[in-house]
Amino acid sequence: xxxxxxxxxSAVELYKHFGGLVAVDHVSLEVRAxxxxxxxxxxxxxxxxxxxxxxxxYEPDGGxxxxxxxxxxxxxxxxxxxxxxxxxxxxxxxxxxxxxxANI
Length: 104
Hints:
This protein has one domain (9-103): P-loop containing nucleotide triphosphate hydrolases (Rossmann fold, 3-Layer(aba) Sandwich), CATH 3.40.50. It is an alpha+beta fold. The radius of gyration is 15 Å and the shape is globular. It is built from three helices and four strands.
C-alpha cells in the first residue's frame, strides 16, 4: 500500500499500565483498508494488551484511538464489535474434531 488512503484505524500514543508494570508504552499504529497487519514481539512485549485495548477489553490509560478519523472509546468488546472491530484471541482451547473455520 502506498499509505495515501486515510487509515481506518489509528492508535496514537496508546499506553497501559497494571500497577507499576508498563504493559504498553506509547504505541502508535495505523491500519488502512486492504492491509493485513501482524504484530510481532517477545513474550511480554504488550501485543495482546494492545489488541485488547483496541477490542474494548481494556481501556487505555492514555493516548487516542480513532476509527475512520473519529475518536473512539470502547468500554466493552461488544461496543467494539458494534463499531466493526472483531478479535480472534490466541487460545489453546481448540476442538480437535473441528476444522480451523469452525474453531473460530
